[in-house]
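BACKBONE GEOMETRY TOKENS:
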Amino acid sequence: CDYDDHVIIIVPGFRETSYSTKIMALAFSLLKNGFPNVHILNYRGYCSVPFNSKKMSFPFGEYNHLNESVESIEAQFPDKKIMLVGGCYGAWCIMDYLSSEQSNRPSIVGGVLHSCNWELSPEDSNVSGLNYHLYHKKLVVDGVQRLEKYLKEEKEMVGEWFAEKGVDMNVVRSSRTMWDLEENFIAPLTGLSGATKYYERVSPVNKCHKVKKPVVIINSRDDFVAPFSRYRLPEFTKNPNLVLWSTAAGGHVCFVDQLFPVTSYLDKAVPECATLLREFAAGGDD
């Protein structure tokens, strides 16, 4: 099969770019399954992506940079439909976009999301054990190191931008968990007073009723970062555009299918969902 009439935009999550192994594997899987037009959205100035503009962008749940990409693809391929794919922070970004008026355009077919934290909570600041050592500590240390790198490479541009947003790097360096990083860096960056307001802003539960395009959400019941318990069925029954696909295992974003060689179940599930969305948009059986 050849679905040349569609373009798929992959929206990476935290610490991911077009160079990331999981992102490349997903892109190749989509290509192999008949979607020849796969675009990966890179965030300007993030994760070693070169600065090509004085306007930086980050994967923190806002859709402005995604909207720019959609408009650019529409201009290049006016006859093609567009599907959005992403996980974790990328899933928040897609939900933010699909719940906005910007997504009410004929070219947008819908989205396939995974590992999407449905409702963020201040309780997420109380982390310990493996959750802290395998996830929070690694991400926070890596995130702060990347910020230091930005300041070193683009001191004038980044320094002025951080100062304008009220970002204090001395406070950012004290971050221990993702809650701290969101409180000290991400919230000010997005113009919000703190992590609580940021969580209210990006949590899909607060905007899912506005989604008017079909969205398939793949989430593992053992995801320790995006707890499955926060998905509530009434939200899905009230909006027929939302479909929840739960798996017994998979963890957060990994969904390891086999170890040698390492493959992800998402590399099968996402193309399958994309095919179903294409058929649905074309008027196939629902």
